[in-house]
Design a protein that fits this description.
By secondary structure, the chain is α/β, with parallel strands linked by helices. It folds into two domains: about 1-130 and about 285-315, Quinone Oxidoreductase, Chain A, domain 1 (Alpha-Beta Complex), CATH 3.90.180.10; about 130-260, NAD(P)-binding Rossmann-like Domain (Rossmann fold). Helices cover about 25% and strands about 25% of the residues. The protein has ten helices and 15 strands. The strands form three sheets. Strands 3, 4, 5, 6, 7, 14 and 15 form a seven-stranded mixed beta sheet that branches. Strands 10-9-8-11-12-13 form a six-stranded parallel beta sheet. The two termini are about 25 Å apart. Bound molecules: NADP nicotinamide-adenine-dinucleotide phosphate. The site of NADP nicotinamide-adenine-dinucleotide phosphate has 26 residues, from helix 4, helix 5 and strand 9.
């Protein structure tokens, strides 16, 4: 089968698109004929081996799992011993990161618990863009105690998490401010953000505006400064960012800033309960779809923040409406 292979840590341009042996599903695994996959922060980190601490997870000298990709949508095409949740032909999707990587390939063998049935209202391209970002957005807003009509700010709003968090917060009647930059600001306005801040010209912690809930995908400001953006009783939730900055937030919380919360993602948790929202119009913002062969350039495009929403690749030629 064809796959994107990472032989050593380095620039994404050194990834190879090549033939690799096709695997049979082992105990409790299914094999998925991958229709579409999405690019994530983990791919940007796995391929470069940066931050270096990640090598403790991915492999010290080179990636233990050489095929990146942790979001998948496709069709079950083989069922291994002991796997009972799916039948051949089922359409599935999920964030596989708790069980391994490898979705930038024509086939993926993975523990059957890594995926769930694809909602019928989503195409494969849409479905692969959902699990990671929607769970981060949903779990982050829950951790922040989102209530109807809150005044919410999303920092790093133009990516996968921000565009889902906007839709979820709007469903609660929230007023939502998005912080990002460049061409994305116009797209964010069109998507429904009430207010936009360009982080290159304005610092959201010094505008004098106060928010009931700040959801931060980048954690670019210090714990001391984010409190200036919070209304009385307001909560700041970080879902990600530089590891050093996250440690600062952890210490700030331990030593007294109890309105700071740090999300530890539980992949796919709560996703099934959100399926009815797709029938009501909840959708990922998709950048693409692009061909699988473009993954090396797309990982850089993602890492440099040039995308809007979720970057999706199609693995087989698929009907875009299904
Ligand atoms: N909590 C967990 O357990 C967990 C698990 C997995 C991943 N994560 C984290 O969750 C986050 C995923 O978010 P995502 O998928 O939405 O990321 P994303 O698609 O990369 O979006 C982030 C957005 O932030 C923008 N940005 C960059 N620098 C900024 C700044 N200084 N101020 C404001 N915005 C800025 C980026 O645009 P430009 O670069 O063009 O400016 C981009 O549009 C990542 O931080 C990831 O590490 C957390």
């Amino acid at each position: 089968m064809k796959a994107i292979v990472c032989k050593h840590y380095g620039p994404p341009e050194e990834l190879q698109y090549k033939d690799v042996p096709q695997l049979e599903p082992r105990k409790n695994q299914i094999r998925i004929r991958v229709k579409a996959a999405a690019i994530n922060d983990y791919d940007w980190s796995l391929v470069r081996g940066k931050p270096t601490a990640y090598r403790l997870i991915f492999g010290l000298r080179k990636p233990r799992k050489p095929i990146p990709g942790m979001e998948v949508a496709g069709i079950v095409d083989a069922v291994g011993p002991g796997a009972t949740r799916f039948n051949i032909g089922d359409a599935v999707y999920g964030d596989t990161s708790d069980h391994g990587f490898g979705s930038f390939a024509e086939y993926l063998c993975i523990d059957e618990r890594a995926v769930l049935l694809k909602p019928e209202h989503l195409t494969f391209v849409e479905a692969t863009a959902v699990p990671h970002a929607l769970c981060l957005a949903h779990q982050g807003l829950q951790l922040g105690g989102l209530l109807p009509k809150m005044n919410v700010l999303i920092n790093g709003a133009g990516g996968g998490v921000g565009t889902f968090a906007l839709q979820l917060a709007k469903r609660q009647g929230a007023t939502v401010t998005g912080v990002d930059t460049g061409d994305k600001l116009e797209q964010m306005r069109a998507l429904g953000f009430d207010h936009i801040i360009d982080y290159k010209t304005q610092d959201f912690t010094t505008t004098g505006q106060h928010y009931d809930l700040v959801l931060d995908t980048k954690s670019t400001r210090s714990p001391a400064s984010v409190k200036h953006a919070l209304a009385p009783g307001g909560v700041y939730v970080t879902v990600g960012g530089d590891p050093g900055r996250l440690i600062q937030f952890l210490f700030a919380r331990i030593f007294g800033q109890k309105n700071i919360r740090i999300l530890a993602l539980k992949p796919n948790k709560g996703l099934e309960a959100l399926h009815p929202l797709f029938a009501e119009g909840l959708r990922p913002v998709v950048d693409g779809p692009h061909p699988l062969t473009d993954v090396p350039q797309l990982i850089r495009y993602f890492g440099e923040g040039k995308h809007f929403g979720k970057v999706v690749v199609v693995v087989w030629n698929i009907d875009p409406d299904r």
